[in-house]
Amino acid sequence: MPPAKKRARTYDAAKIRAAVTAQFGHVADAVRELGDEQLARPTGLGDWTVAELAAHIAWIADSLASGLARPPAAVPELTAVEWPSVTASLAGKISEAARETLDGAPLPELYERAAARMAEALAANPGSRVLDLWIGDMTLADFLVTRTVELVVHTDDLARAAGVDIPIERQALAACTRLLADALALKAPGGSVEVRIPPFAVVQCIEGPRHTRGTPPNVVETDPLTFLRLATGRTHWAAAVEDAQVRASGERADLSALLPVMS
Predict the structure, then answer these.
(1) Cα–Cα distance list, 92 to 60, 83, 96, 220 (Å)
(2) In terms of DSSP H, where are the helices of the chain?
(3) What are the CA-CA distances from residue 114 to residues 154, 205, 216 (Å)?
(4) What backbone phi and psi angles, to 5 degrees, belong to 124?
(5) Cis ω for the linkage preceding 260 (within 30 of 0)
(6) Is residue 209 reached through a cis peptide bond, with omega within 30 degrees of 0 on the bond before it?
(7) pLDDT values of the chain reduced to their tens digit, one per residue, 263 residues
(8) Lesser CB count within 10 Å: N end or C end of the chain?
(9) Would you say 172 and 17 are in contact if contact means Cβ atoms under 8 Å apart?
(10) How many angstroms from the chain centroid is the CA of residue 119?
(11) Rounded to an integer, what distance in angstroms lies between the CA atom of residue 77 and that of residue 66?
(12) Which is nearest to 20 in space by CA: 195, 172, 143?
């Protein structure tokens, strides 16, 4: 008898909306305080400076409002957990669109405009609204979960590059971690390795003997920020293991071939 299909994870739509709005607000507050020297620093994300990364984060909110301003699509083609695996092909197009949309305006103005547009658009649309997107049509509820990934990962990028502390909303971090963990399990289905990211997620992945009870023979455990950095290519597996940021036990507990989940 084939194993039962895993039920898709669900998210509290109201909490996700609040988390996206709050996280964008945290970044906006931090960006307003950045000086010229900080804005000119490299980020390690291609040739982006801190200023260009900050502008891109403003575009994340602005583009959400723009998507909701377009006529809705008929039916969703993509779920949140499928989103990470199809993002790489659009990186150049997204970067170019961000430059065209935001070029020229001061950062505080970009953030004020984007926050107002996003708030108005979210207030006017239910989670069931289907957005017509380059990457594939998605419900607003699912797309907002993907926004937690963009915002949390880029908040971490911005904080490290600019040398500042930026709060990360617990609900946003939880959703981001769970989505990327589920995407890893989708990429390598199976039950031979248990991946633990306390306190937010536990998933099983990789084909092989399935664990049923007791201590699993193959376990990977790490903290949420390290996992997000691994899943998006900011940190490499070997370095994270060597620095004891990842604990891996068992002959199958090597995820290097599966990472990053998205880039």
Answers:
(1) 15, 16, 6, 33
(2) 13-32, 36-39, 50-69, 91-102, 107-123, 140-162, 170-187, 224-231, 237-242
(3) 16, 38, 46
(4) -95, -5
(5) yes
(6) no
(7) 344 566 889 999 999 999 999 999 999 999 999 999 999 999 999 899 999 999 999 999 999 999 999 999 999 999 999 999 888 766 666 666 656 655 668 999 999 999 999 999 999 999 999 999 988 999 999 999 999 999 999 999 999 999 999 999 999 999 999 999 999 999 999 999 999 999 999 999 998 876 566 667 899 999 999 999 999 999 999 999 999 999 999 999 999 999 999 97
(8) N
(9) no
(10) 20
(11) 19
(12) 172
Which pair of tokens denotes residue 240? 């994270």
Neighbours of 97 (CB within 10 A): 15
DSSP structure class, residue 75: S
What are φ and ψ of residue 50, in 5° steps? -60, -40
In whole angstroms, give the CA distance from residue 105 to residue 39. 15
Cα–Cα dist 194/216, whole Å: 7
246 near 240, Cβ under 8 Å?
yes
Q: Which amino acid is at 75?
A: V
Q: Do the beta carbons of residue 257 and residue 211 sit within 8 Å?
A: no
Residue 100: its pLDDT value, please? 63
- H helices of 40-166, in order, are 50-69, 91-102, 107-123, 140-162
* pTM summary value: 0.93
As given in the structure block, the two tokens for residue 194 are 């248990």
Locate 18 and state its tokens.
């609040």
In this predicted structure, what is the pLDDT of residue 87? 83
> How far is residue 172 CA from its own chain's centroid?
9
